[in-house]
């Protein structure tokens, strides 16, 4: 296993100590917020680095005892040396992962978009299943899900559904879900019991602020229109629905909730996310040439996962992972097993790339 850049570890500790000192000197509120944010980001890594240094010191002491010539003490020291080497190896791997470059969007909340693909009514039903899977997963993580836009399928489910998922680290966990999800099952409407294959597309976009991406007023056209509804009392009879067109890119976003003010805010939020995502996609494709093995996190046309109901299995094609836990995954309760496997695979690819470059 590759070692650690000790100079960088020392520099991190010095920076951490200087932040701690600055915070104790009663800085102004704005500076305090900035310092405390950096302090909380560095704290877990510095704690791990200090644990690593203590383990190294303990190992040196145990080795000295082992070579002291005292047979009884040498036996005790040998057992301790074995435990310490194992601990150090684990700490080195943990620190190496912590030192990997961070995606600037990882800590952000996210916009989740699920759309029915090929398969007609069955695709819309599957899109509904996927949305509920993410909704349940989000609840298990302590995140908040806010529905932004939904177009229901004729037989249930959704032709399209968009939601805001807010919380710490949402995008880091969900970014690998973007792509084509395929389902193989017997639809309720299939009398002969024939298995159908349908698909839905998932897009996970980091939520971005005005400071992250600039949208010039002259670059957008905002139209209001009458929202369509399910009929009866649910029909919105005012011109509250909003459609925003970003003229330079042709991106069109709509929102049709009850409040025109909220619709405008929702539509702008989605537009910012899509424009930011477009920039990220461009940068990602430029990096992709040197990262053939890295798990994709954005190609919307890539078939990433198959949910096979007759066999009760879910297969993620990017990492060749198959789990026979479809009921637990589709309800969101076991989705974390796939999410964590994808994160681990990506970290391994980054570490390998880092070692090749060193």
From TrEMBL:
Its main location: cytoplasm. The modification N5-methylglutamine is found at residue 233. GO terms for cellular component: cytosol. Residues 278-305 are annotated as: Disordered. It is found in: Cytoplasm. SMART domains: PCRF. It comes from the Bacteria. The keyword Protein biosynthesis applies. Methylated by PrmC. Methylation increases the termination efficiency of RF1. Residues 278-292 have a biased composition (Basic and acidic residues). GO terms for molecular function: translation release factor activity, codon specific. The keyword Cytoplasm applies. Residues 226-242 form the Prokaryotic-type class I peptide chain release factors domain. Keywords: Cytoplasm, Methylation, Protein biosynthesis. Belongs to the prokaryotic/mitochondrial release factor family. Peptide chain release factor 1 directs the termination of translation in response to the peptide chain termination codons UAG and UAA. HAMAP family: Rel_fac_1. This is Peptide chain release factor 1. It comes from Pelagibacterium lentulum.
């Amino acid at each position: 296993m590759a070692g650690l850049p000790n100079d960088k570890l020392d520099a991190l500790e010095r920076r951490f100590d200087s932040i701690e000192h600055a915070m104790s000197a009663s800085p102004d509120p704005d500076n305090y917020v900035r310092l405390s944010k950096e302090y909380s980001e560095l704290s877990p890594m510095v704690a791990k680095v200090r644990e690593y240094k203590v383990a190294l010191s303990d190992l040196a002491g145990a080795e000295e005892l082992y070579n002291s010539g005292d047979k009884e003490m040498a036996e005790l020291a040998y057992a301790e040396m074995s435990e310490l080497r194992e601990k150090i190896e684990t700490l080195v791997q943990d620190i190496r992962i912590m030192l990997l470059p961070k995606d600037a969007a990882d800590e952000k909340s996210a916009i989740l978009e699920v759309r029915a693909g090929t398969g007609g009514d069955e695709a819309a039903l599957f899109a509904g299943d996927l949305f509920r899977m993410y909704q349940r997963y989000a609840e298990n993580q302590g995140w908040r899900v806010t529905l932004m836009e939904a177009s229901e399928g004729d037989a249930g489910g959704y032709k399209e559904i968009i939601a805001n998922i807010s919380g710490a680290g949402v995008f880091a966990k969900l970014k690998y879900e973007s792509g084509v999800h395929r389902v193989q099952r017997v639809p309720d409407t299939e009398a002969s019991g024939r298995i159908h294959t349908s698909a839905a597309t998932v897009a996970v976009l980091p939520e971005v602020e005005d400071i992250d991406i600039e949208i010039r007023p002259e670059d957008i056209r905002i139209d209001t229109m009458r929202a369509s509804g399910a009929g009866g009392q649910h029909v919105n009879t005012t011109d509250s629905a909003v459609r925003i067109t970003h003229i330079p890119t042709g991106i069109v976003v709509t929102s049709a909730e009850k409040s025109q003010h909220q619709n405008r805010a929702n539509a702008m939020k989605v537009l910012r996310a899509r424009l930011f995502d477009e920039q990220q996609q461009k940068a990602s494709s430029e990096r992709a040439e040197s990262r053939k093995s890295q798990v994709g996190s954005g190609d919307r046309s890539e078939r990433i996962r198959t949910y096979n109901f007759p066999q009760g299995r879910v297969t993620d094609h990017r990492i060749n992972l198959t789990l026979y836990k479809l009921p637990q995954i589709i309800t969101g309760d076991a989705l974390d097993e796939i999410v964590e496997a994808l994160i681990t695979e990506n970290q391994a690819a980054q570490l390998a790339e880092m070692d090749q470059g060193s």
